[in-house]
């Protein structure tokens, strides 16, 4: 599937980027599975939030898909005394909002890597807040 | 490196220059860029500069240490004096004038040269070097005249590296101009910086040719050069050039973006490097931007769509990433389109970037749309227009304008409030936000002292009322109209007045006034008795329809209760205590709530069609309510008033559920079929939530308006909007959850029914 390339990847200080890349890619399968399982195209934001995809190897993966099938995957350490579901949701919401802001920019071509500074700042602030 | 002996004046001067170049405050190493600028400003041929650098050891070391820097400066002085560059010339040449750098520095140096021994002057000049020179003008005064006479190596004007040319030419021809500058207040300098950058688009080729023409203008622009000079030497001449260009080429603005602009970009100096406010837009620039805006979008109050803006700014040859960042900064309301102010801000940022200025991380204050609006001279005149455009280009003006003038007449305070309101709407700069505030006002808190929200709300409620009236006249509902007419007009009137009191908040700040006298201040807008009657009728009808008070049922609780609870309702954020008394409250609340929920829906969806939508929505709401009527009437027929209250109480919830997902009426029906006990707590929650929301939302518009502080108000309103969003989202999710539960119950009930049916057949 040539279309499953990441638009944006960011990891916390411990830069095991490759490992995260791998996890994200594997979780994409789970995301797809959940999407197809949803059946009718509900445009409810709650369903966009896919929840805990699967907890393995002391980290958790959360998924969120937008209406335009852009997927957000968040990987968190389990040692991170569990982030509440609401927090994850709000983080995804913020991500979504920032993403739409990026989209609004006419200079941004959908499919490009995201280079918006505002987006970066938002993500950084979120990560700092979590870690 | 040979020992360097410097005189005191030299020492001081060099150290000043060093600290100027030492932008990183390392105190040891000077940034190469700045040093190079400095040397370029010395108007020496490039090879000489290179030689100097070699001699002083910078190229060897790779950086400019203090000693290297001093040596270099001395060598510059040597070169400028015409002596051959030798290492030994550093110390051998006695009484060397201080190295001269462009324009402002030139004055200093020339002054130094002229009065080399006068330390006092040097001191003065030194003081003028580092700090932003308020006294610059005066300091330069004397030296300027000397300057113009100074021989200047006229480097090539075209040469980007030493863009010193044209100004160099101009000062000699108009020495007197310098004196003029000194009189200019340095405060005005801050505006100049970017003045020239406006027309920088115009072919810079004109620069050289126009330099003579620019002479006269040069005078007008020299204050900025001095000021900037101390910031970056090489830039002054181009600045002045550009500034000279500016007035001359104001008419030529249309000859904009040519490839020459690329060269101009390089040559264009950091005019914006003024310390005071680099981001301020001067009037000339603003005029230029406005003209550019017009070429894309003739309507000054309209938007430039993203694609057009993209094309336009791509012409500026900035990298896409930068343009993208500029867009992010300037698209204040994130709507994908640029208003005039956003466009000006974006243009300004592009200009600044082309000047070499780094893009800020946040939009500078002076570029914020609202501030730019307020700075506009044509504020008062623009505001009504801006109201129109910010509201929604198509529909807002017609609906708003009738209400606005009438409101202005009615409430004196609206005069100032209208401006604030317009400013505010300007700030929001999107009808979407406007709508949200409309909805916020809909369940207006009568206790708020704020007048501003009222006008907005009046219109929708008016429309709503008119719609209701239309409905009433159109549909001959026997149980509704006639009965409501007959049944206690006063009470209905009181309800109406109460409802209107919600809308007409300003005069009704006092808590529970007696009901009958209430109408006068509140419905001043609809001062005629007919409107009263209309409201009475429509309200009564609607109430009857929704609450399902059949003729038989005693009218809503006492009018005395009505105003009381009405006033309490908005304050009742913790929840509606007494359901008995809530029903009349909810009646007026319902339309408000309906408006509100509709607005929420549409605020999320469509930006420009609130007015139409709300008009449409009203009939829909009414249909929903109407549809619920038969059910409610059925129910009422079976149950007691208690149920009615619940249905009344649930009506708003149902309305909300009905409108939010636009669910068909059966849902309310089903709700009523459920056990009453289940309903009641849920309904409590709903009404509670709506009460909370109403209070929250009602308080929202009041605060920014009342404060009147633009930036804080925006931020505060943004925060509140976000809070509201989260609250609403939560409510939405909870409602969805309840919906699902209800669906499940329904299914289970149906299953049971199925199971029972076979038995019945037996």
From TrEMBL, chain A:
Keywords: Cytoplasm, Endoplasmic reticulum, ER-Golgi transport, Golgi apparatus, Transport. One of its GO terms (biological process) is endoplasmic reticulum to Golgi vesicle-mediated transport. GO terms for cellular component: cytosol; endoplasmic reticulum; Golgi apparatus; perinuclear region of cytoplasm; TRAPP complex. The keyword Cytoplasm applies. It is found in: Cytoplasm, Perinuclear region; Endoplasmic reticulum; Golgi apparatus. Its main location: cytoplasm. Belongs to the TRAPP small subunits family. Sedlin subfamily. This is Trafficking protein particle complex subunit 2-like protein.
From TrEMBL, chain B:
The keyword Manganese does not apply. PROSITE patterns: EF_HAND_1, EF_HAND_2, EH. Residues 510-520, 551-562 have a biased composition (Pro residues). It comes from the Eukaryota. SMART domains: EH (SM00027). Keywords: Calcium, Coiled coil, Metal-binding, Phosphoprotein, Repeat. Residues 10-113, 285-369 form the EH domain. Residues 541-550 have a biased composition (Low complexity). GO terms for biological process: endocytosis; endosomal transport. InterPro entries: EF-hand-dom_pair, EF_Hand_1_Ca_BS, EF_hand_dom, EH_dom. GO terms for cellular component: cytosol; plasma membrane. Residues 115-126, 145-156, 407-433, 478-509, 529-540, 578-589 have a biased composition (Polar residues). This is RALBP1 associated Eps domain containing 1. It comes from Saimiri boliviensis boliviensis.
């Amino acid at each position: 599937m040539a279309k499953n390339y990441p638009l944006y990847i960011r990891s916390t200080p411990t830069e095991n980027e490759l490992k995260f890349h791998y996890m994200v890619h594997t979780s994409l399968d789970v995301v797809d599975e959940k999407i197809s399982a949803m059946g009718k195209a509900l445009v409810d934001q709650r369903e966009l939030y896919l929840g805990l995809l699967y907890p393995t190897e002391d980290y958790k993966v959360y998924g969120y898909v937008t209406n335009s099938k852009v997927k957000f995957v968040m990987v968190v350490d389990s040692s991170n005394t569990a982030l509440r579901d609401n927090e994850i949701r709000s983080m995804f919401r913020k991500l979504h909002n920032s993403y739409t802001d990026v989209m609004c920019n006419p200079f941004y071509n959908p499919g490009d890597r995201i280079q918006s500074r505002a987006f970066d700042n938002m993500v950084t602030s979120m990560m700092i807040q979590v870690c | 490196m040979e020992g360097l002996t410097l005189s005191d004046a030299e020492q001081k001067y060099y150290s000043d220059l060093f600290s100027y170049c030492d932008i990183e405050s390392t105190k040891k190493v000077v940034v190469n860029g700045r040093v190079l600028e400095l040397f370029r400003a010395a108007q020496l041929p490039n090879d000489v500069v290179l030689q100097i650098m070699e001699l002083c050891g910078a190229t060897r070391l790779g950086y400019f240490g203090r000693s290297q820097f001093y040596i270099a400066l001395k060598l510059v002085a040597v070169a400028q004096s015409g002596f051959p560059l030798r290492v030994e010339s550093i110390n051998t040449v006695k009484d060397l004038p201080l190295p001269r750098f462009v324009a402002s520095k030139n004055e200093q140096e020339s002054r130094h040269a002229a009065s080399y021994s006068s330390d006092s002057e040097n001191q003065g000049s030194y003081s003028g070097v580092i700090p932003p020179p308020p006294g610059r003008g005066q300091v330069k005064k004397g030296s300027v005249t000397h300057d113009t006479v100074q021989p200047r190596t006229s480097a090539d004007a075209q040469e980007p590296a030493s863009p010193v040319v044209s100004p160099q030419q101009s000062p000699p021809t108009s020495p007197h101009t310098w004196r003029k500058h000194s009189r200019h207040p340095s405060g005005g300098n801050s505006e100049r910086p970017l003045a020239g950058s406006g027309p920088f688009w115009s072919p810079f080729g004109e620069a050289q040719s126009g330099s003579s023409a620019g002479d006269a203008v040069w005078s007008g622009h020299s204050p900025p050069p001095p000021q900037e000079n101390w910031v970056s030497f090489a830039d002054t001449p181009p600045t002045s050039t550009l500034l000279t260009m500016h007035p001359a080429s104001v008419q030529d603005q249309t000859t904009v973006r040519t490839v020459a602009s690329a060269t101009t970009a390089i040559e264009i100096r950091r005019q914006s490097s003024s310390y005071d406010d680099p981001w301020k837009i001067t009037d000339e620039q603003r005029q230029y931007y406005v003209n550019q805006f017009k070429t894309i979008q003739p309507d000054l109050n309209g938007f430039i769509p993203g694609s057009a803006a993209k094309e336009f700014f791509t012409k500026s040859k900035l990298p896409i990433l930068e343009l993208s960042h500029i867009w992010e900064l300037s698209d204040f309301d994130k709507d994908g389109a640029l208003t005039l102010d956003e466009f000006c801000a974006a243009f300004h940022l592009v200009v600044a970037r082309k000047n070499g200025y780094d893009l800020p991380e946040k939009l500078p204050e002076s570029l914020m749309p609202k501030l730019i609006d307020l700075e506009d001279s044509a504020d008062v005149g623009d505001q009504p227009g801006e109201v129109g455009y910010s509201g929604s280009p198509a529909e807002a003006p017609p609906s708003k304008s009738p209400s606005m003038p009438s409101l202005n007449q009615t409430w004196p305070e609206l005069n100032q409030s209208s401006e604030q309101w317009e400013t505010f709407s300007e700030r929001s700069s999107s009808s979407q936000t406007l709508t949200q505030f409309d909805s916020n006002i809909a369940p207006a808190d009568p206790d708020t002292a704020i007048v501003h929200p009222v006008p907005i709300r009046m219109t929708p409620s008016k429309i709503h009322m008119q719609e209701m009236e239309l409905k009433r006249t159109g549909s001959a509902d026997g149980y509704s109209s006639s009965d409501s007419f007959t049944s206690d007009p006063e009470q209905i009137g009181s309800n109406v007045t109460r409802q209107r009191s919600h809308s007409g908040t300003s005069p009704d700040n006092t808590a529970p006034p007696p009901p009958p006298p209430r109408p006068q201040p509140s419905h001043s807008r609809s001062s005629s008795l007919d409107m009263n009657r209309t409201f009475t009728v429509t309200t009564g009808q609607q109430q009857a329809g929704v609450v399902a008070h059949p003729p038989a049922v005693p009218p809503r609780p006492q009018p005395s209760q009505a105003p009381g609870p009405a006033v309490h309702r908005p304050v009742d954020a913790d929840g509606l205590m007494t359901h008995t008394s809530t029903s009349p409250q909810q009646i007026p609340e319902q339309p408000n709530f309906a408006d509100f929920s509709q607005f929420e829906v549409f605020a999320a969806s469509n930006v420009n069609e609130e007015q139409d939508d709300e008009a449409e929505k009203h009939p829909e709401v009414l249909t929903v309510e109407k549809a619920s009527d038969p059910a409610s009437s059925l129910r009422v027929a079976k149950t007691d008033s208690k149920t009615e209250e619940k249905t009344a109480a649930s009506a708003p919830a149902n309305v909300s559920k009905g409108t939010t997902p636009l669910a068909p009426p059966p849902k309310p029906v089903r709700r009523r079929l459920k056990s009453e006990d289940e309903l009641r707590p849920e309904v409590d929650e709903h009404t509670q939530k709506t009460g909370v929301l109403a209070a929250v939302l009602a308080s929202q518009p009041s605060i920014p308006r009342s404060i009147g502080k633009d930036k804080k108000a925006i931020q505060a309103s943004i925060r509140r909007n976000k809070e509201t969003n989260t609250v609403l989202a939560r409510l939405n999710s909870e409602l969805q959850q309840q919906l699902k539960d209800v669906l499940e119950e329904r299914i289970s009930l149906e299953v049971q029914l199925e199971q029972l049916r076979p038995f019945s057949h037996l």
